[in-house]
Write a structure and sequence with these properties.
The chain is 46% helix and 16% strand. It has helices spanning 19-30, 42-55, 70-84, 108-138, 162-182, 200-203, 207-216, 225-236, and strands spanning 10-14, 34-39, 60-64, 89-92, 144-151, 187-194, 247-250. Helix 4 (108-138) links the parallel strand 4 (89-92) and strand 5. Helix 1 (19-30) runs parallel beside helix 2, helix 3 (70-84) runs parallel beside helix 4 and helix 4 packs parallel to helix 5 (162-182). The longest helix is centred in the middle third of the chain and has 31 residues, at 108-138.
Length: 257
C-alpha cells in the first residue's frame, strides 16, 4: 500500500469546482479517493468532474449546492451517500470574500450574507455530515475528518474586511468546539488558515492588496496551488489522526511578519 493511498475513501468538498477547493480535490483524486464536489455553478462543476475522473483511481461527482441553504446541503449529502455509500472526509471550503466595507459602512444584509456562507454554511454542513459519521461510529466504524478553509485574516487585521475576518474567526471557534465534542466518535476537526493565494476572489481585489502582500510575506510569493494537493491528502489520511482542534496557518509566514 502506498503511504498516502486513499482508495475506498469518500471526501466531500464544498466550493470544490475552482480555486483552493479544486486544488485540494485534485490531490484527493490522485490519491484514489472518491470526491463529491458541492458547489453552485453547474458548468464549473461539470468541468471539475471531468478533470478529476481523468486524474484519479476513484470516482467523482458534482452536485449543485448553495451552502447558505440547509435543504441543499441535506439533499447533496443524501445524494453523495447514495452514490458512494459513506463519507469519510469533509472539507468545508466554500466561502465568499465579504462585503468589502469599512466598519462605519457595515450593513446588516452584507454582514449576514458573509456569515451565512462562511460560517453558518460550514456549521450546517458539519451538522449533517457528523450525523452520518456518528451513526457509523455507533455501528462500530468510528472516525471521520472535518477540515475547514479558514483564513489568516481570522488572526490578523486587514482594512475593509471585518465581516470576512469575523466569519473566519468564528469558523476557528467552530473547529475547536467540533474537535472537542466529536472526539469520542474518532472524528477530528481542523482548520487551515490560508494566506495569500491567487484565486478568483483575489483577482477581484484592489491590485495594491497583492503588492502589499508580496512585500509582507516572508517567503515573498503567493501560495502554490500544487502544494495544496499534498496538504489535503495528509489531512484526509490516517496520518493526521492525532491532530485535532488545530487552526494551522498556511501562509508563507505571513502571520509572523
Amino acid at each position: 500500500m502506498e503511504l498516502f493511498d486513499l482508495t475506498g475513501t469518500t471526501a466531500i468538498i464544498t466550493g470544490g469546482n475552482g480555486g483552493l477547493g479544486l486544488a485540494m480535490a485534485r490531490g484527493l483524486a490522485k490519491a484514489g479517493a472518491n470526491v463529491a464536489i458541492l458547489a453552485r455553478n453547474p458548468d464549473k462543476n461539470a468541468a471539475a468532474v471531468e478533470e478529476l475522473r481523468a486524474l484519479g483511481k476513484g470516482d467523482a461527482l458534482a452536485l449543485t449546492c448553495d451552502v447558505a441553504d440547509e435543504a441543499d446541503i441535506a439533499t447533496a449529502l443524501e445524494q453523495t451517500l447514495g452514490a458512494f455509500g459513506r463519507v469519510d472526509v469533509c472539507f468545508a471550503n466554500a466561502g465568499i470574500a465579504g462585503a468589502g466595507t469599512a466598519i462605519p459602512d457595515i450593513t446588516a444584509d452584507g454582514w449576514d450574507r458573509t456569515m451565512a456562507v462562511n460560517t453558518r454554511g460550514a456549521a450546517l454542513l458539519y451538522k449533517h455530515v457528523s450525523r452520518h459519521m456518528i451513526a457509523r461510529a455507533k455501528e462500530g466504524d468510528p472516525g471521520g475528518k472535518l477540515i475547514a478553509t479558514s483564513s489568516g485574516q481570522s488572526i490578523m487585521g486587514v482594512n475593509r474586511s471585518s465581516d470576512y475576518a469575523a466569519s473566519k474567526a468564528a469558523l476557528n471557534g467552530l473547529t475547536r468546539a467540533a474537535a472537542f465534542e466529536l472526539a469520542r466518535y474518532g472524528i477530528t476537526a481542523n482548520a487551515l488558515l490560508f494566506g495569500y493565494y491567487e484565486t478568483d476572489i483575489t483577482a477581484r481585489a484592489d491590485p495594491k492588496f497583492a503588492e502589499w502582500m508580496s512585500r509582507r510575506i516572508p517567503l515573498r510569493r503567493p501560495g502554490d496551488h500544487a502544494g495544496l494537493e499534498g496538504l489535503a491528502v495528509f489531512f484526509a489520511s490516517p496520518h493526521s489522526d492525532y491532530i485535532t482542534g488545530q487552526c494551522l496557518p498556511v501562509d508563507g509566514g505571513l502571520c509572523i511578519s
